[in-house]
Design goal:
It is a single chain. By secondary structure, the chain is mainly beta. Helices cover 10% and strands 40% of the residues. The protein has helices at 307-323, 392-398, 422-431, 434-445, and strands at residues 3-7, 13-18, 21-26, 32-39, 43-46, 48-49, 55-57, 63-65, 71-74, 77-81, 87-92, 98-103, 109-115, 122-130, 136-141, 144-151, 154-160, 165-171, 178-183, 198-203, 209-214, 219-226, 232-237, 249-251, 256-258, 263-265, 270-271, 334-341, 347-352, 373-382, 403-408, 411-416. Helix 1 packs across helix 4 (434-445).
Amino acid sequence: MELNLTRDTSGLITSLTGGKQLTVNYNQDLEITNVNHTIPQPFSESYTYDSRGNRLTSLTNSYTYNDLNQLTDSTTQTYTYDADGNLMQEKNKLSTEIKKYFYNSENRLIKYEHYATDVSPVDKIATYKYDIYGRRIWKTVNGTATNFLWDSDNLAVEMNGNYQAVRRYVTGVGKDDFEGYFECSEAWNPFNTDKTGWYSYVKDQVGTVYKVVSLERKQVIDNRTYDTFGNLVNQSGSSQGNLGFQSKYYDVESGLYYFYHRYYSPANGRFINEDPIGFNGGINMFAFVGNDPVNFIDIYGLDSLTDNQKVLHAMCCIWYHTYMDPPEKKAKELSFMAYEHKTEKDYILTACGQKEKSGRRKNVSTFTRKPGFNIIAWFHTHPPGASNDASAEDQNISTSLDITVYTIGDKFVTKWNKNLKKSRNERVMRTTALKGLCLSTKAEWEGKCCSKK
């Protein structure tokens, strides 16, 4: 079901129509302040923030923070943290309900406990385990185990405690590009002709699943309404998959979304602990996508990306895996071009402009025209020892693009198109700091963060 987007002069979405209908307003820091939903269910959102990007008020709550941007108090809750900035306890002021969080030495959540009141015994215990790349591979809730099998950085299969497949996810070409899933209990053969057990996702512009369609019955079986920060406002029908806000896995036991490197609280619109890449993700290490989840996504729990930058992130990964992994390999003269379809949410990555053995460069212009597509980004490498200055040919190619990234060996040099509108340029630099994104990509492919293919 197609969504129609209306944007302002800086490129920010101001309204959506189609399967969802809403309007959005922003403050001078380009944070979401008001959202009015009309379809599928009418409701409103309203937020204010301090100068550091901490949410001060919503329609139903107010919030207080310390000097470390840690949320310490709200209208209904109190919060405490450990010395590493990890949320340890959340307590309800009225009911005295308590939630406790426990972490390993890498500040990853490994245990969650729930108490109905401050004098009640624990009634829910969840535990979590990760592989060497930080992917969650196992969890238990009150003794019931779920195992997770991954395809690179995408969740592929959910299994029970006996390692029997329960659910298989279908993905596209990118991180979290989930198209649907197959429910193994409904059919032993996933290639059945009547589509028994097959379900398809309908997602919005940031990948949030708001409809689930049964391919066998050819009808919507699950309608969901989320607010912009991922709180489920209403649900009609049901489905078995656990993917929801921004295509992330929702843990019912804790009310948190698993964002790969850390966990996100939709109730507070922020992460429960500090950013593993520090200030490369922004000055507020708990903030979520610059308080703008209408335009931005966070694929690893590290930093916010637009769709265009998500494609560029994939280009960084391709480059680093190909030319800098293992370390003895050296970067070559190579370019990747990213194309976006003019009307549909579809992307193409192509390699172009590689130098021939004779030293002559291929005609890059022959790679820059694809019917129905616009060029959105260009990623270009220079061999170690090359000049940081782009050649005249390089500059000519990059003038029409939003973002260009050059690399000199393993050093990243970010070039911003001087023709970009100032507000949009500031927006990209403030929330993403693309050079920091590329450096975090480098760390990921060295095994400090995400997995390698």
